[in-house]
Structure formats: C-alpha cells, structure tokens
Amino acid sequence: MGRGKYKSKPTGHRNFSTPEEMLAGTSTRPRTFKKQEVEYEEEQESAEESGEESGEESDGNNEKRKGTQGIIEIENPNLVKPKTLKARDIDITKTTELSRREREELEKQRAHERYMRLQEQGKTEQARKDLERLSLIRQQRADAAKKREEEKAAKEQKKTEARK
C-alpha cells in the first residue's frame, strides 16, 4: 500500500511489445491472435485461388464489408437488404401492395361511404329513428302553428267584437 496523498498508477508496470518483436515473433505476450490471423490469411488466399478457378461462383459477394461482417454470415430473416433499382429496370405495370394500415384506412373510408349512402336512403336503423323523430317534430310544429293561427283569429275576433 502506498503512502502519501497520491496513488500509484497501474500503467507503470505494463510491458509493450515493439513492432519488431511482433514481426519476429519473439514477444513475451501470448501469440494466439497472431496464429489466428495467419490461419485466416491462409484461408483467404486459398479461397481466392479456388474462386479464380470456379469462375462466377461469387459474383454477388464482391462487396467489401466492415469489421466482422465479412467473417460472420448473418441469417437474419428480418434483415432488409437495400434494393437499388435503375430507372430503366422499374416495371410500371406492376402494382404495389398496400400496407396493413393503408388497407384498413381504405376499408374504413369505403364502409363509411356505404353507410352514408344507406343513411340517405333511410335504410339504416339510425336513419329510421331520425325520420320518425323528424316526422314527430314536423307534426308538433304544424300543431303549434295551427294553434297560433287559432289564437290569432280568436284575438282579432275579440277586437272586432269590442269595437262594435
């Protein structure tokens, strides 16, 4: 345990290999990564040689990949590969499929239009109730108008009688 105000730093005891030692393979550090790297390079060279002989086996896999993407083959069904199409390759006659939300929105609009058409024709339950209410209100208004006319006629008759 150190004395004093300051703590000793752990970096003082580290040993680093020089690039010359690494190339010569005489460094004291374990060489597992170096061995794996050499094996990988040998595999790549043998794959390139066999690729040249086979011809067009790997036409689609010529793109460079970053990091471990070149080593690890991904089997992800959700991975969407970008599809770049040129203008001349686009098929104009092909119809695009609508998404679920778009389909539901169209169905909702069509159902609403159909319901409004039936509503105008008076074939829905709500339209029948509305028409009944409307006829009842018209009847009440007609009765009220008739009553006002009678009261007005009665007032005028009283006025004419009072003048005589």
UniProtKB/TrEMBL annotation:
It comes from the Eukaryota. Residues 39-60 have a biased composition (Acidic residues). Residues 1-164 are annotated as: Disordered. Residues 1-12 have a biased composition (Basic residues). InterPro entries: Casein_kinase_sb_PP28, HAP28. Residues 76-153 form the Casein kinase substrate phosphoprotein PP28 domain. Residues 86-164 have a biased composition (Basic and acidic residues). PANTHER family: 28 KDA HEAT- AND ACID-STABLE PHOSPHOPROTEIN PDGF-ASSOCIATED PROTEIN (PTHR22055). This is Casein kinase substrate phosphoprotein PP28 domain-containing protein. It comes from Cannabis sativa. The lineage of its organism: Eukaryota, Viridiplantae, Streptophyta, Embryophyta, Tracheophyta.
